[in-house]
Amino acid sequence: MFRSQNEFVSGLLNLAGCMIIQLAYGYYYTIGNMGTYITAYLSHNNKTVTQNDMVVLTSVIISFEALAMPLGGLLHRRFPLRAVIAVSCILHSGSVALTYFSINCNFTAVVVTYGVMQGFGFGLGYALLISIAASWFPNRRSLVVGLVVGAFAAGSFVFTPIQTAYINPWNMQADNVTRTFKDPMLLHRIPSAFLISAAVLAGMEVIGFLLLCEKHVYEITGFSVSESTWSEANEVPSKMNNECAENAVMSNKEMTPLEALQTADFYILWASVCCVLVPQTMLSSLSKFFGLEYIRDDSFLAGITMASSVCNAVGRVIWGLLGDYLSFKVPLCCLLLVWTILLVTFPHLSEFEGSHLKGVYALWVCLMFFCLSGVFVFTPLASNALYGSRNMTINFGLVYSAFIVGGILAAVLTRVPQLHGQTFTQFIIGGMFCCAAFVLCLWLKDPKYPNRLKKLDVFFWFREYISIRCFHWSLGRCFRQCS
Question: Which sequence ranges are marked TM in the entry (predicted)?
Answer without folding.
Answer: 12-31, 54-76, 83-103, 115-137, 144-166, 186-212, 260-279, 299-318, 330-349, 361-382, 394-412, 424-444
